[in-house]
Amino acid sequence: MAENATAPLSGPGGAIPDIGIDSSTIISALLLLAIAYVAVRVAVFLLGWLSERAYEHRITVKMAIPIAKLAIYGFAIYHILGSVFQLSTTQLIAFSGLAGAAIGFGLKDLVAEVVGGVVIVLDKPYQVGDKVRIDDQYGEVTDIGLRATRLVTPDDNLVSVSNQRVLNQTLANANAGSQEMMVVIDLFIDSASDASRAMEILREATVTSRYVYISEKRPVTILLKDYPFYRRVRSKAYVYDLRDEFPFETDVTKRAWDSFEAEGIEPPKAGIVDLGGGPAAGGG
Amino acid sequence: MPPPFKEEMELIEKATKDFEEGKRRNIAVISDPFYGESELLEWVWERAGGGALRVKAGSLKEDFEILERSSAKIAIVEEAHRLYLRKIGGFDLMDRFINFVSSSERLFITTWNSFSWKYLDEVLGIGQHFPMKIELPGMDAGKIRDMLLSGYEEGELTFLEEEEDETEEPKILKRSSFKISLLGERIEIPRPEVDLSSIRSRFHKGEEKRPPMEIFFGKLARISDGNPGVAELLWKEALDYPEVRNSLIDLPSIDLDLDDSFALNVILSMGSVDLAALSEVLEPTGTSAERAAALLEERGLVFIDGEVVSLRAEALKRTAEHLRRARLVW
Q1: Is there a smaller number of Cβ atoms within 10 Å at the N or the C end of chain A?
Q2: How many CA atoms lie within 13 A of A106 on its CB side?
Q3: Using the beta-carbon criterion (under 8 Å), do A210 and B258 form an inter-chain contact?
Q4: CATH assignment of B258-325, given 1.10.510.10, 1.10.10.10, 3.30.1360.70, 3.40.630.10?
């Protein structure tokens, strides 16, 4: 192939380098891509399997998945260009020109997505295993592919968001690579009810939950906010595994309300609480 | 055969002297279950003579006023972790006790289950009320040997070599399988599984050349995790005077779901707990205490004696490992 590559082809514009592509070269390149694909699938499966058994190190192990994919595909492309096509510097420049034209005309979006995938892997705005909100979609990141990021929503829907789009969106990452995650639980009580006792009960419901994780850096905070006809009691605490976000919320809410009822703490009168864009949706 | 608490005794002695001179530092003695810290309290009690009040924290549930009525300058409270239950309303007595400790002029010497201590320190910040924290450390094989053989003459006991079952060599690779969904069908795919305990046992085959006594105490320290109380219990099982059987076995890893792990966590944090109290904790979460206790007993982790569920000493290390891995203890 190297000998063919040096033989010039004549044409109206002068000598065009022969890059020496024949059917066996294409088959070799395709074979390498297929091997890389299989290697990626195996690596993803093994790392995914391992991460689920690594308990507290689950997210750390999962972080290796996109890096492994990038490394395997990168090595395959490097090998195809270097060893299979055996491109010289001139040929590489010619190839780059062709590739540039192709990207400019038809593959612009695809390349932007792939570049986006590389940026995500290197910049790490999120990792596999994180809980993120992208483009109005909330869920656990299950895969950062070359073209798109995949999330599983709480309703078990698999959502694909293109990597290019991810980079242009405001992104909220709930845990940022950590297995713990803050969960905010709001309970609304009638203004006439004993708010101090409600705060005490909510605090105890939170710290006694089997899902809670408390440390100096992960404290439990109980907040109270007054609205014209009701009060909001808010608990901010961490779960030790972000997958327990909703069971934690359910556990705390159920036990807190059982105690509220036993102690005469009542919910607001019907129709008062505004969970939309009104005051109840405010932060704090 | 209590563990020698030399350093701990010195610390307590210094704290009581400081107290006599007007500097009060309440003491928390923190240890894993079965450690044997009551021997240390016995020493404190005898040393204080009539100047100290000694109570079990469990009795304060019935009569908290005993603390208020007593005029003793030193109060020894054993198993102070029994003043709370992990449920809504389960901290009232603990809060009352902590308020009493912080407002009192007495010196409090208390003992705590280490797992409960860590939890309560994060939840209630109890550490700030006990400036002197004495954490009882794990013991190495040498110290355990010295402790257990202190009552015997040299050569009095014969350590038997480990019996090997030649018929059943444990396999390193075991056959296992996992299921995947393919075109709507559940397909079972076989896979190899590595048995870590078998690898470990092969590694320890090299120990055959070491004296049986050394092998025995090395294994005892590992299985008991350096806990002198657990080591003593296992020693009693192995001792068939004047012979010591080397029949200690590592318990397999624990595999439990979250509900049962949480029940195990409650038992570990108390050492032992009434079924009624366990039920108060588990029932609001929808878990049956009786069912969870029966399952844990079946797995060899706890034993049920009447209405009390207690952790098995030999399961302490595995239990703590499992709950740490599951992040139920921090």
Answers
A1: C
A2: 3
A3: yes
A4: 1.10.10.10
- The chain A residue lying nearest B180, using CA atoms, is A45
Cα of A249 vs its chain's centroid, Å: 22
Question: Structural domains in chain A?
Answer: 2-123 (no CATH), 131-173 (2.30.30), 181-273 (3.30.70.100)
Question: Best mutation site among A178, A208, A217, A238 for testing chain B: the one with the most B CBs within 10 Å?
Answer: A208
pLDDT, average across residues B88-100: 96
Instruction: Tell whether the model's pLDDT for residue A7 goes beyond 50.
Output: no
Q: For residue B309, list its beta bridge partners.
A: B273, B304
Q: Residue A5: what pLDDT? A: 42
Given CATH 3.40.50.300, say whether it is the number of domain B6-137.
yes
Angular region, B6: left φ>0, alpha ψ -120 to 50, beta rest: alpha
- Better-scored residue on pLDDT, B212 or B124: B124
Q: Identify residue B253 by its one-letter amino acid code.
A: S
Domain ranges, ordered by start, for chain B: 6-137, 143-250, 258-325
Confidence label for A69 from pLDDT (cuts 50, 70 and 90): confident
**Which of B84, B85, B87, B88 to mutate to test binding with chain A, by most A CBs within 10 Å of its CB?**
B88
Pick B284's closest partner by Cβ from A55, A216, A255. A255
Average pLDDT over residues A59-82: 84
Query: Which residues on B lie below 8 Å from A179 (Cβ)?
Result: 327
* Of residues A56, A208, A220, nearest to B88 (C-beta): A208
CB A209 within 8 A of CB A251: yes
The alpha carbon torsion through B316, B321, B325, B330 (nearest 10 deg) reads 70
> What per-residue confidence (pLDDT) applies to A259?
96
pLDDT of residue A272: 65
Give the single-character DSSP code of A1: -
